[in-house]
Amino acid sequence: MQLTNRAKQVSSKEMTLAERIYLPAIVTGLGITIKHFFKKKVTIQYPEQKRYLGPVFRGQHVLKRDEQGRERCTACGLCAVACPAEAISMVAEEREKGEEKLYREEKYAAVYEINMLRCIFCGLCEEACPKQAIYLRHDIFVPVFTERDNVIYGKDKLVENMNDRYLRTAWTKEEALHQDINDLTPQPRIQL
Amino acid sequence: MLEAGFIIKSLIILALFGLTLLIATYSTYAERKVAAFLQDRLGPNRAGPWGLLQPIADAGKMFFKEDFIPSQASKWLFIAGPCLSMLTALMATAVVPFGDSVKYTTGPNQILTVPVQPIDVNIGVLYIFGVVSLGVYGLMIGGWASNNKFSLLGAIRAASQNISYEIPMGLSMIAILMMTGSLSMGEIVSQQHGGNWNIFYQPLGFIIFITCAFAECNRTPFDLPECETELIGGYHTEYSSMKLGFYLFSEYINMFVSSAVISNLFFGGYNYPFMDSVHQFLTNNLGAIAGHNVATLIGTVVLFGKIFFFIFFFMWVRWTLPRFRYDQLMNLGWKGLIPLAMLNIVLTGGAILFLKPLITALLK
């Protein structure tokens, strides 16, 4: 089976004089390397320059709200069960009367914590969630820790800000595959 | 008026010494930059603008590293190795002419001319060869004193390689000496006045000489004494801190020296085409003394341009060619270059004997 067209038949015939002198080959080689010398460099100077990593890159978590600004999470614990690194923990509470504007479901997560030292950013929580509440953002990296206190992210850091909603062009890998590559306008998640 | 001459000479020597070290320092930076560019990378660019402070950071790192001497090593020889390497590398520039001459007045109608060359000995070429062949002792002693089999293998390779390649190097030089009839570097350079460079008469000699220069500097494709893949680090496996720094640094000084020697022997040194008309123009406009000095300065700049090109060429070749196998190296040296260099001598002799009178007769 031929994988590429670059395979060459090995020949054991005697080398020509030009091949034995080796200088023509050296000159050709020097020509190739000097071409690379003047080529545009492909390096991305990382901390200053960042490139777009695609709509389904798995960065920092976000706990989504719905269109009315209610928290989607119902504290079912499926994300915590799905998590292979056991990074997620939560405390569930029942919704009181008058809190319907805050929480969509009758049960909500009073405490929702992710240990970012444990998290491996696999995205299984996202797939396990039946309420489409947790997502891994494509635009924010979890920053480097210098203190142990900064490691555990609570609801204060995770819940979506309604003034600066988290949107992206595709919400699943399938959507990302089918979307127009040049269309980068963020779309809200379709309501279920 | 000996004192003024002495001061000028000392200034020239000090300036060239400083310049040699500076160029060697920035060669390390250039090497990394050239390597990166040839491989589509950017190279060091974090220390200072464009990474220009990188060599200083490297040297600082070298100074603060632990200076380790193996317990089984021969302590004094271990220290002497890098010192000798550095010393011989620095000594070689002493006879290399870096410009024409500086003129200054010492009194009414008294003009003194000082050549821009530390010392113009009449055996300059021999001196360079002698010093360069001493250089191998640095590697030998270092490798031997480390008491490590890899170091010893590297040292043996270095010794045999340098000795083997000195022969064709010397033989290719003989053809030049036959043409110029002098061993003095200053004389050889001044005979290549204008565009009358030796490269046009000795292309074969030049190829032999530059190949041997690569081998003498232990640069790729002849870097078998180091040869990381086989010998870890070769002769400097056991070295650390500034002793290692000296070994690496002396390699870059050697590169500078051989670039300077190649430019002087084959590419006319400070000579460039139409230099006489430039000299004429400058002396007419600036006066005899100032004009001459400015012309000398231009010649020196031209020479350094040639030297930088050859330093770049050394790096360019390093990042193009893979290392030779040891038997290939020896075959090339003994069976390839030595007969070729001898052939070159015969051809040059024949040309001097028959071609030269023929051409002069035809021109008449």
How much helix is in the residues of chain B?
55-70%
Topology, number of strands of chain A: 5
The fold-level CATH name of the domain at 61-178 in chain A is Alpha-Beta Plaits
Tell me the number of helical segments of chain B per DSSP (H or I, 4 or more residues long): 12
Largest interface: A-B, 14 and 13 residues
User: Strand fraction band of chain B?
Assistant: under 5%
Q: How many distinct folded domains of chain B? A: 1
Radius of gyration of chain B: 22 Å
* Shape annotation of chain A: elongated
Cα separation of the termini of chain A: 49 Å
What is the residue-averaged pLDDT of chain B?
85
CATH architecture of the domain at 61-178 in chain A: 2-Layer Sandwich
CATH class of the domain at 61-178 in chain A: Alpha Beta
End-to-end Cα distance of chain B: 47 Å
H and E order of chain A: HHEHEEHEEHH
Structure, described:
- The complex is a heterodimer of chains A (192) and B (364).
- Chain A is α+β, with helices and mostly antiparallel strands and 192 residues long.
- Chain A has a domain at 61-178: Alpha-Beta Plaits, CATH 3.30.70.3270.
- Chain A is 21% helix and 12% strand.
- Chain A has helices spanning 17-21, 23-37, 78-82, 124-128, 155-158, 173-178; strands at 61-63, 88-94, 107-115, 134-136, 152-153.
- Chain A is elongated and about 95 Å long.
- The two termini of chain A are 49 Å apart.
- Chain B has 364 residues and is mainly alpha-helical.
- In chain B, strands 1-2 form a two-stranded antiparallel sheet.
- Chain B contains twelve helices and two strands; from the N terminus they run αααββααααααααα.
